[in-house]
Amino acid sequence: MGLASTDWLVRPVAPIDEATASAVLTTRFGVRGTVRDLGSQQDRNYRVRGEAGEYVLKVANPAAQKAELRAQCDAVEHLTRALPGLRLPRAVPGVDGDVVQPFRVDGTELSCRLLDFVPGEPIMDSRYLAPAVVARLGELAGQIAAGLAGFTAADPDRFRPWDLRNALEVIEALAPHWPDRTRADQVLSAARTAFALLEPHAKDLPVQFVHGDLTDNNVVCETAEDGRRMPVGVIDFGDLGTGWTVAELAVTCTSVLHHHGAGPASVLPAVRAFDAVRPLSDPESAVLWPLVVLRAAVMVVSGQYDVLQDPDNGYASAALDREWTMFESAVSVPAEVMTARLWEALGRPLPRVAVAPAHRMLPDLPLDIPALDLSAQSDDLHTGRWLEADAEVALASGRPAVRTRHGEFRLTRTTIDTLDAPATCALGVDLHLAGPLEVRAPWAGTLTRHADGTLDLRGEGPVLWLYGVADPAVSGPIAAGQLLGTVAERDGRHTLGAQLSTLADRRPPRFAGPDLAAGWLAVSPDPTALITGQVREEPSADQDLLDRRDRAFATVQEHYYEEPPRIERGWRHHLVDTQGRGYLDMLNNVTILGHGHPALSDAVHRQWRRLNTNSRFHYGSVVELSERLTALLPADLDTVFLVNSGSEAVDLALRLAWAATGRQDTVAVEEAYHGWTYASDAVSTSIADNPNALSSRPSWIHTVAAPHSYRGRHRGAEARRYGPEAAARITELAEQGHPPAAFICEPFYGNAGGLPLPDGYLRQVYDATRAAGGLCVADEVQVGYGRLGTHFWGFEQQGVVPDIVTVAKGMGNGHPLGAVITRREIADAYRTQGYFFSSAGGSPVSSVVGLTVLDVLRDERLQDNARETGGYLKRRLEELATRHPLIGAVHGSGLYLGVEFVRDRETLEPATEETAAICDRLRELGVIVQPTSDRQCVLKIKPPLCLTRRSADVFAAALDDVLTHGW
């Protein structure tokens, strides 16, 4: 179909004023209404608001034949029958019954059609596209491809520049018109490379009618409950014609690449979804990425040409930057790498290249060389050693020879406090030696010495790249076994890097990011055999671990995220997954000191070696911990019980109150969570944790309204009414013959998202409880231990002293440890119930853990840090609230904060689904955070108390990114 000239180049339709378009609408279709120009690249489109409905008036480019236009309308009707749930632009017949109507403007005969307006919004911007949205785009492309598989019509008898079978010709014709010769040459080179990869498979690619332009801005969307725009319809069949079926998917994938945060791997959900609807053949999978490159290249040169021809075409001009972004992304990774990554994503086996050296590369090296463990699970990289620049060399020192592992995701390459995933997957191996050894050619080939000292040896197989060779041989032909040089010395060690690559046209990176690692590994064979003389199969990551978890571990014990990262390392306020991705941990209030604290691990190690038993034995640490706890509390709270958890602590506290008062009625606050044991669950009223919480409470549980000053019954200054109302309810219960044994609540409203109680609330409620003969329980499990910054205990903010205090979570920094502290007479009352014992709560190890946590909190001034860094972070979040209306409020104190999302600041409609989606997007950016509150619309921000200002800035920047560019 190609032409020897560029006669096929299409000039845009000359502008048609809206008055003329309105007249055509009336005379040709009998429709009256308002007309607004929508813009287009080569046609003219007008939005019509008529008396009987809404339409789009499409004025076709003169190059389009009437048969093509009718075929487009026929294809829509065909798809309407095949895909009845899909919104499509059906044609409205003209006054003479034909869907294609002629008219003349300034002596030029044109054709137009009137199409039903398809409700919904196209994706016209470059905001972030979530994987679910990308998958839906791929699914739509698959449905359209499958739906059109049986469609027939006359193929247009003209050269179609958007048919990717003609892509290279279009690029070579238009690139010379581009004034920017550097970019033009870049596009030409990439297109020719892509075509060379595609051409051997062309004859095996199925051909059918395709939409040809199923892109992000040719779908219409409805906004889902989570705020994401989800495609529900397809528009603009102007490029309908025969073409490779796989081109439909290539066009869709290309359109994803200009969106915020997108990279080549971002298209994988679309590819998987397309394949699920219309399976891709091996040849189609092999050419998909070359077609993406060609599509992007065609868009770039066509856009530039259109602007040259019609400088006033704002539609075309506005697209230039995003078209270049798509091209840059498409060529940012070699097509061979991306093709392998696509195959891996589709579950297809990847080819493996066997390496058979003709000569040992290091003949003087022993064969049995141990491997360093540089993974996230390495025992040698504790206490943050992996962050040190020389960590790998330090681990290798003192050993005569060690090697690294090919394909390992190295913890030593992990970065923290960044929004981008680092390149952690090793595509080669390193050999660390105590002294120099000769390096010889493993096979015959041609040696090239590069300016930076790197060598590459090219023979019949993969290219061998060597780093760290001293006194190298000169460039030129090399025989197998010929001396290449010696392993170079650096900082007292000798290190050789070896890497193989099947890519002959470029030097490969030494590390790859997790998203493309499978693709890069497919073109980077394991060079271990060149060093050891034998290939060692290293254990790979367990891909089915989540399935195994679901089979063996009760699924009611839920995990964060639908596709959770496998976290195997923590250090301070960061977590690391098995692919070396570092995460800022804004969630783990349990690890109050931070992950992997050396003082704690050392103390536990020492105590485990010495003794671990239970508190019925006599030893010092249980006494010391009890004394330390009581010293932190008012003098009357002088007696300690040590337990295993917060649930157990609350359960015991309630049992103490029942024993001391001789009754069971208990008053709890609504929207609260206290634990999962029988008693602690009874006072847990949060419907987020149990949807039936309020209706399933025992008869002896009585609730008072949640003192929620932001969205409760009384708001703002009116929140002062909660205290008297709760006190009145307690008095009423006593008068009705149900005097409470206890009143329990968090002294800082944690489960609601970190809200302070109204001033005087606890004093009023405590007074009423005590007047009725009850005891007051302060649940400090989440909010105590300095987290609030201004106070060590939450109840101190209210100026009260409780009768019983419960502690856990941060008390053990993740070790199962909790406490109940009360007065001696209350503790002694428990003897009426029998004997109390907790196996691990006061054990020597648990007691040492508790003591060490208190020491570190004091010595590292973590409460001060909570106040200072937490205050700084809160100010950053409050600033975001001035720019992002989704933020309704920023709650909290110290490092117990909550960002509440609302759809409307007046009605306070909770943005529940948006909050979950925002958490997913933040995880992609390297931040771990989760929703809380009964409405699940609050980000619970409870990081380890060692959080730094830099990390606070990273969190604020990540949240700003998500709220600005989408989730």
List keywords for this structure.
967 residues; alpha+beta; 8-stranded antiparallel beta sheet; 26 helices; 33% helix; flat
Q: Can you offer a commentary on this structure?
A:
- This protein has 26 helices and 40 strands.
- With 967 residues, it is of the alpha+beta class.
- Strands 11, 13, 15, 16, 17, 19, 21 and 22 form an eight-stranded antiparallel sheet that branches. Strands 27-35-34-33-30-28-29 form a seven-stranded mixed sheet, with helices on both faces.
- Strand 16 (455-458) and strand 17 form a beta hairpin.
- Helix 3 packs parallel to helix 7 (268-277) and helix 6 (245-256) crosses helix 8.
- The longest helix has 28 residues, at 282-309.
- The chain is flat, with a radius of gyration of 34 Å.
